[in-house]
C-alpha cells in the first residue's frame, strides 16, 4: 500500500516559498509543489493568477470571519477539498468550468451530507480478516 505513496515523484513534496501581495502587503507563503500546482489548476479555471486567487481567498475568508493564523494550512485544505469535491463529482473535472460559476451553496450542502455519511460509516464495525505480516 505505501509504495503507491512513497514511490511518487519527490518533487511533489518539495517546499517552495512564493512572495505575493495581499491587501497591499508583500508576504510569503511556503507550500509543497503539489499544492502550488493544485492552486494553479484552481486559479486557471477562473482566469486568475495564483497570487490573485490567494488574495481573493484571503479577503473572502476574512470577510466570513475566519481566523487565518496558519494561512498555509488553510490553502492546503482548500487544495484537498478541491480534489475531493472533484472525486465526489461535486465539482466538474472539466477545466473549462469556472469555479466561480458553480452553485457553492448546493455543493457545500452535498459535501456536508457526504462527510456525515462518511463519519457514520467509520462507526460501523468492519468485517475484516486480521492482517498478515510477511517476513522481509
Q: Can you give a write-up of this model?
A:
By secondary structure, this protein is mainly alpha-helical. Helices cover 50% and strands 12% of the residues. Strands 1-2 form a two-stranded antiparallel ribbon. Strand 1 and strand 2 form a beta hairpin. Helix 2 (33-45) packs across helix 3 and helix 2 (33-45) crosses helix 4 (71-87). The longest helix is centred in the last third of the chain and has 20 residues, at 104-123. The model has no long low-confidence stretch (mean pLDDT 91).
Mean pLDDT level: 91
Low-pLDDT stretches are: none
Distance between the termini: 15 Å
Helical stretch tally:
5
Helical content class = 40-55%
Name the helix and strand elements from N-terminus to C-terminus, one letter apiece.
HEEHHHH
Beta percentage is 5-15%
Q: Would you tell me which CATH topology applies?
A: Ribbon-helix-helix fold
Helical/strand content category: mainly alpha
Summed up, the domain count is 1
CATH class designation: Mainly Alpha
Give me the CATH architecture, please: Orthogonal Bundle
Count every beta strand, where a strand is a DSSP E run of 2 or more residues. 2
Q: Biggest β-sheet: count, sense, barrel?
A: 2 strands, antiparallel
Shape: globular
Q: Tell me the CATH superfamily.
A: protein bp1543
Spatial strand arrangement across the major sheet:
1-2
Q: Radius of gyration, Cα only, in angstroms?
A: 18 Å
Protein name: Ribbon-helix-helix domain-containing protein
Pfam families: RHH_4
Region (Disordered): 115-136
Domain Ribbon-helix-helix: 16-83
